[in-house]
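for the record, two folds in this file. i put them one after another cuz i was lazy. first one right below, seq on top, structure tokens after. the second one comes after a little note so u can tell where it starts
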Amino acid sequence: MNTHSPLPAPGAPLQHYVSTAPIDLQSVEAMTPEQSKVFQASQLRLMWWKFRMHRLAVISGIFLAALYFGILICEFLAPYNLHTRNMDYIYSPPQRVHLFHNGQLVGPFVYGRQMTLDMDTLKRNYIENQDDVQRIRFFCKGDSYQFWGLIEGDRHFVCPAENGQLFLAGTDRLGRDVLSRIIYGARISLTIGLVGISFSFLLGIVIGGLAGYHGGIFDLIVQRIIEVLQSIPSIPLWLALAAIMPITWSPILIYFGITVILGLLDWTGLARAVRSKLLALREEDYVLAAQLMGARSSRIIGRHLIPGFMSHLIATATISIPGMILGETALSFLGLGLRAPITSWGILLTEARSVSVIAFYPWLLLPMLPVILVILAFNFLGDGLRDAADPYK
């Protein structure tokens, strides 16, 4: 039996059936509250949710945030002043922190030390005095300092006992506390990466963007310049540019000079990446629509093209910052970077250039540890930010 409706006769008008019931979108496609929350979330919120799933990136971000907050108050965090010398404790090894003494809870403390000189090797040997318990003080008065070179202060987060010593990372050849100098050196080593990457990004995005968008003779000239700069070995080029800076320059000028050098050498890779992306994106329909509406090149590049590969720029930035920190460390280690009285992690590592010093006083290599941790943290953070920049992927 045929249950289908008969076909209309040829030429007869078709009958239309329209429902007069109100439209209910929820009845068409019902969504749970969780699905509705994701569906209505903004792009920044989606990026944050995606970033939180990358646990290692979150931990790295917290670690770097703590470090950059610490450089704001490094005078307060350091147990000693940057230039304090303890001449009775030259090349003193790191002290161990104890909690219990003779089975009783005393709190964080260190044992006092006595120095003896080995007449055969002229090496200083330090012996702990188990009867000299020196409790560590917190939020206490200690060495005086100038907070950011402006405000006098003497408060420290941690201090040695009265007439005691606290060398958690040992001392150097002048009896200066290595831990305090590492904390002070973080201010220079961490900020030089941020300032350098800002200068490098400005050059890379502007030059690479114009070369990729316009092409022609400008693109040809830029590519030849990039090829020449990339063909020169990095270390000899660093040495040549660092040697140009006069010795009479102040430490601040040397700091900005090293920053400009690192920025000049790092923009080429970013410029080439930006150029290749813009060569592909400039053929899209939305770029043609913007051109027909009279938008200028700077607006098209900055408003429409650059955001299209922001994830790549974020990954490049997080990789370039540790590269600049390594560059400053290498230049300072070779004696052609920053100079005293400025203190950075690279300058601290110059104390360990001698093999004999490393053999007898290995704790002088401790400034290398924060360099490694910061580089790893930036790489992990870059992986998380790169994935979070494409939340729909």
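(here's the note) second protein begins now
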Amino acid sequence: MFTNQKLKQLIIPLVIEQILAVLVGMADIMMVSSVSEAAVSGVSLVDSISILIINIFAALATGGAVVAAQYLGRREEEQACFSAKQLILCTTAISAVIMVMFLIFGRQLIALIFGKVDPEVLASAQTYLFITSMSYPFIALYNSCAALYRAMGNSRISMVTSLIMNSLNIVGNAILIYGLGMGVEGAAIPTLISRIVCAVLIVVMLRHRQDQIRLDSYFHLGFDWTMIKRILQIGIPNGLENGMFQIGKILVQSLVAMFGTASIAANAVANNFASMEVIPAAAIGLGLVTVVGQCVGAGKIEEARYYTKKLMKWAYMASIALNVCILLGANVLLKLYNLSPETLDIAFKLLFIHGFFVMVIWPVSFTLPNALRAANDARFTMSVSIASMWICRIGLSYVFGLVFELGVVGVWLAMICDWFVRSAFFAVRFRGDRWTRRRLIEG
């Protein structure tokens, strides 16, 4: 069903899109840092919440993409289009409710999640949250449409629109922060505008009549609970998994704060590189949703297995090539941050630990489960991921970090244990046949 050329056309734009997201995120923080420490702190607090919310939207979008891809595999374009409408209605409604909650109770939510913070930081966080929360329906709509394009095997559209969105954000930040001195508002307003522009743009493009999935009308839309249930069968477990993962990261970050300034700084720097180290495997994971979804929808289970194994090989080759380069240049790269000798030593250890085990086990832990999700085995991946997160990543972080006095290095070793545990379950599941019996669409 997929030639090498088609696979490359699907995956390469996804890799570029992931790179853009990481680089723009780093540039965004650098610009905000020119305002004040309170501004950076306030924005970072809100970003931790926003990442959680956006991951929920992305999970719902994945549910819709799996359903649409399976219909395309069965060559039922009309049903694929109908599922697209239901996905857009569902995500827009849910995101609108979340937006209203944040607009009304934003201050209370920040205080509830983070406790007492400096008044200046609280003011910055409030301002940033109020403005950016208005963009939630638009980023949810964008994620849904981008996922639908990927379900068609067209990831170029999401890459281009992502480039537009990120460019608008960076240019807007530069004008409002540096040019007009608007502070936190100068960081929030471009985020809102860029998400609105790209949501409108990608929805308009989805009207294209030659696309397999398209919106034939903006007005003749109505909820179909049977179709929405199919979408949520993937979306809810995936959303819970992503949500618990982000909550776990917040808890682990609070533990890292106990180990001192050097550990906090080293952890932050290493996390920047960690995002880069997994880009190829993460992008291939997104592509697996399309490939396996269409194969399973067509009833071609052996092809689904074949392409999963093939793309996993690509994920490993790309991960090894990238991480060997990063590790060889680690000393030079870390010196760009002007760290103290103690912080530099810790950051190098974390970077080496993460990079080495990305090459060994990360694709099985995080790329492979997308193949299971595409076959509607999302409950299994959710159960394994949540259990492994709480027992290994969080539980062992306290054991290694505090009891064994390994500090932040112990936290990262606990994370690696989490990877090994979940990868063992996912590998065994994939080798069996239970995951192939859970199709959303009965053949």
